[in-house]
Amino acid sequence: MSSALAEQCAGMIEEASFVAVLTGAGISTNAGIPDFRGPQGLYVTKQYDAEKIFDIGHFYSDPKPFYEFAHDFVSLESKIMPTVAHRFLKTLERKGKLKGVITQNIDALHQKAGSKNVYEMHGSFWQSACIECGAPFSYDELKIRMKKTFVPLCACGSVIKPDIVFFGENVKHYEEAVALAQESDLFMVIGSSCVVFPAAIIPTLAPGKIVLINKGKVQLNLYNIALDVQEDADEFLAQVSAYLKW
After folding, report:
1. Which is nearest to 213 in space by CA: 5, 4, 17?
2. Strands 123-130 and 118-120
3. What are the structural domain ranges in the chain?
């Protein structure tokens, strides 16, 4: 069954002239980054207090829960590598098909794989700023300060916050994401269950065919869903790549 679906997906990609993609945590789990809602996700394992990690109000009152997560992320970041799916999208872009990746992830694995047009709706760790004076910090500077104090501090004594979108803050690149979706003739959702808004709105704006690739059910009910593949993204896209002969 998956082979037939992969062949269909390859055919849709060959026919398309403007592909746009929305990715979520599921595209990075094979790289070793836990998601939030999967069987081994943070909400299930209770590895962190997931309700507090990305809550902006809680960050301002007590940034320690976030930095418990951040310290683990920093230790992982140098070891994690892009997955088959990340590399597939880089090739899709290089072939001129993929016009942009809209991602909910903060791991920068798309850029690590070589993708150029990446829109991080939830930001990333690569830039930070002091919450009081606004002084900017690079990722390397943030890591140095995290070694000095568990919660990194600016020279002014206030907490440094990475340029990550917390619950209670506006997402980034929403207008660009909307434009990509509206112009696409093939829109792919990879590794996202589409339950987090406003990212979940983006696929609903795509006028062309939609392909869903996610281990679990994607919470979309749209007339133009052409394929609903509930399988491992790496395994499925490896098959698609074979049909495309890339």
Report:
1. 5
2. unpaired
3. 1-33+82-122+170-246, 36-79+126-164
Could you report the per-residue pLDDT of 154-189, keeping only the tens digit for each? 999 999 999 999 988 999 999 999 999 999 999 999
Give the ranges where the chain is alpha helix by DSSP (H).
2-15, 42-45, 50-53, 56-61, 64-77, 84-94, 109-113, 139-148, 174-183, 233-244
- Decide if 122 is catalytic: yes
Spatial neighbors of 190 by CB under 8 A, at least 6 apart, are: 21, 22, 23, 24, 26, 27, 85, 89, 213, 214, 233, 237
Distance of CA 49 to the CA centre of its chain: 20
Catalytic residue among 58, 86, 110, 122: 122
Cβ neighbours of residue 204 closer than 8 Å, sequence gap 6 or more: 220, 222
Residue whose pair of structure tokens reads 């980054």 in the numeric block: 33
User: From CA 146, how far away is CA 42, in angstroms rounded?
Assistant: 23
pLDDT at 231: 93
CATH topology of domain 36-79+126-164: SIR2/SIRT2 'Small Domain' (3.30.1600)
Sort strands 136-138 and 123-130 into parallel, antiparallel or unpaired: antiparallel
Q: Which fold has domain 1-33+82-122+170-246?
A: Rossmann fold (3.40.50)
d(CA 185, CA 7): 18
* pTM recorded for the entire structure: 0.89
